[in-house]
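Researcher: Next sequence.
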Amino acid sequence: MKVRVLAMDKDGKLLYEGTLELPIIVGRGLKNYVFLKTKAQEVPLAKSLCVSRRHLEISAERGKVVVRDLGSTNGTTVNGEPLRGEKEIHEKAEIVIPGKLPAGRPCNVIRLVIEPHTVNREALKVMLKDIEASTTMLGLVRIANELKDKLMEWGLEEEAREVERILRNYSKGPSPIALKRALSDFLISLL
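Model: Next structure:
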């Protein structure tokens, strides 16, 4: 799954803008540079002593974007509320890494605006009804391929691969019942 990311300093200066694959780790690396790290790349942002080495994680879990503080020293806020544990993000959210250095001196605050690719729940509900109404293997395979295409369009590559796995495992059987059940369960998990 991918998210659109805007990273700014405390004055609103744009440090990074782009789309990144989840999971993303936000932390402080060499020479105190804050970075956004994915499996494929590491994006340096700015120097800040307020950010812990492994400060927070933004990940995808079953079609949802989750922000998790990784035990940081200065904490994290999501939309102005302190983050305790983890929080799901359904739409655009502002994540701020606040903090002060010893003796109360302010430091470079990092603001992230995260915008997940959203799932069209109404389209998924229609597909679920189509699956429940379908009685043939051919019809179910057609719906599954439409679902896979929609998931790719929404930036949910991992979920699209899960639909491919379901098709591989269940579409070769003599009865469409197992495929229907697997696709229905998968769609319900996304809703």
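Model: The chain has a mean pLDDT of 86. The chain has two domains: 2-116, 121-190.
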